[in-house]
Amino acid sequence: MPKTDVPPRWDRTMRQRLARGEAAALGELYDRFASLVRGLAHRVVGDEHAADAVTREVFAHVWEHPNSYDPAQEPLRTWLAALTGRLAVRRLRTTKTAALARGGPGTAEDLERTVRHASVAARADYIVQSMPAPLRAALELAYFQRRNYRQTAADLGVTDDEARRRLRLGLQLLATAHDTGAPDAPPGIGGAA
């Protein structure tokens, strides 16, 4: 079953609760988004322990700086995806740089290539999390459940033409993940970060 967008009212209320220092709000936020944050972090850093550390860092940042999120700008889900991408890419760069300094395998060019690849992956994840729910649902059905456009249409209860349109638009948006100069790119995502 596809996920639905978090209502903007919930986002505003959550920010207010966090700004008041309600620990229960952080727990609720964690319960709702921890698997998303951890999955995005793992995709970038490629390591269980590092993904756990990034997840802790993301939620610590939210707790310490609740007003850094502006519900008028974007949904909380999207903001968390962008924050996770930035922090995961930064951790990857720091870890790989330290390994090179200790004489680990690879070169500075390998490091930059790895970071660029991770940045594109983080941007792709950000794009998917930013998509309207109907586009995201169509892509999730087609990709994760291996549905063709007809099966996707049936699962979503839309026409074949609408399913094709959603899939095409979603794929066009994803294709911009390599476009490091995209005007809607979140800070620190894309390119060499």
TrEMBL record:
The keyword Endoplasmic reticulum does not apply. The keyword Transport does not apply. Keywords: Sigma factor, Transcription, Transcription regulation. Residues 29-96 form the RNA polymerase sigma-70 region domain. It comes from the Bacteria. InterPro entries: RNA_pol_sigma-70-like, RNA_pol_sigma-70_dom, RNA_pol_sigma70_r2, RNA_pol_sigma_r2, RNA_pol_sigma_r3/r4-like, WH-like_DNA-bd_sf. Belongs to the sigma-70 factor family. ECF subfamily. This is Sigma-70 family RNA polymerase sigma factor. It comes from Streptomyces pimonensis.
